[in-house]
Amino acid sequence: MFAVENGLQGDPRLQAISDAIRVIPHFPKTGIMFQDITTLLLDPVAFKHVIDIFVDRYKHMNISLVAGVEARGFIFGPPIALAIGAKFVPLRKPGKLPGRVISEEYELEYGNDRLEMSMEAVKTHERALVIDDLVATGGTLSASINLLERAGAEVVECACVVGLPKFKGECRLKGKPLYVLVEPSQLD
Ligand SMILES: O=P(O)(O)OC[C@H]1O[C@H](OP(=O)(O)OP(=O)(O)O)[C@H](O)[C@@H]1O
Ligand SMILES: Nc1ncnc2[nH]cnc12
């Protein structure tokens, strides 16, 4: 589900967000149109639009846990977590977290990877939101949902700044709703 399909049609903030994301062709591999959100971070107005839209959506959903995916989910997740009064849980690449972790392997648009989460971070039945910058195949978010569900959390929704158009409409990842702000520019 995209924001334009869900009450934000014609909202100029979405265009401002889209305009602030730079597209780098053939990075990190030939054929990938890399959506570079670092330019969005240089634009405090557009960056704030992202956080405001997510906070408005999630502030009354009784969410106690925001999980952010390394690396770029660490940028958008914490301000949202603080604004809605939830804790922030980092989902990290392998070998970075101390203590007891659970891990999930997944496939990427360009390779394989693994995500880990601290066992102590989650309480059973906690209502969780997963945040990342971008959804391409959905593999990363699906692994994130698996981690949280294995720890006993209830994943309420996954949210991304950028998503491929195939995620329009009532699409779900592992049965969970997905909410996306903008489509990639210059798709091909
Ligand atoms: O929907 P998917 O096909 O799973 O792809 C999306 C993921 O890919 C990118 O991260 P990447 O794995 O490149 O890691 P990085 O942020 O550490 O560079 C992006 O930030 C998402 O986390
Ligand atoms: N096209 C893309 N741009 C930025 N990050 C990505 N992660 C996977 N595909 C990506």
Instruction: Name the helix and strand elements from N-terminus to C-terminus, one letter apiece.
Output: HEEHHEHEEEEHEEE
Percent of residues in helices? 25-40%
Number of helices: 5
End-to-end separation in angstroms reads 22 Å
The name CATH uses for the topology is Rossmann fold
Low-pLDDT regions: none
Beta content: 25-35%
Number of strands: 10
Number of domains as seen in the coordinates: 1
Shape: globular
Structural class: alpha/beta
CATH classification class: Alpha Beta
Largest sheet: 6 strands, mixed
Strand order of the largest sheet: 4-3-7-8-10-9
List of distinct ligands in this structure: 1-O-pyrophosphono-5-O-phosphono-alpha-D-ribofuranose, adenine
What does the radius of gyration come to? 16 Å
CATH architecture classification:
3-Layer(aba) Sandwich
Mean pLDDT: 96
Question: Can you offer a commentary on this structure?
Answer:
This protein is an alpha/beta fold. It has one domain: 3-Layer(aba) Sandwich (Rossmann fold). It contains five helices and ten strands; from the N terminus they run H-E-E-H-H-E-H-E-E-E-E-H-E-E-E. The strands form three sheets. Strands 4-3-7-8-10-9 form a six-stranded mixed sheet, sandwiched between helices. It has a two-stranded antiparallel sheet with strand order 1-2. Helix 3 packs across helix 4. The mean pLDDT is 96. Bound molecules: 1-O-pyrophosphono-5-O-phosphono-alpha-D-ribofuranose and adenine. 1-O-pyrophosphono-5-O-phosphono-alpha-D-ribofuranose (PRP) binds next to strand 7 and helix 5.
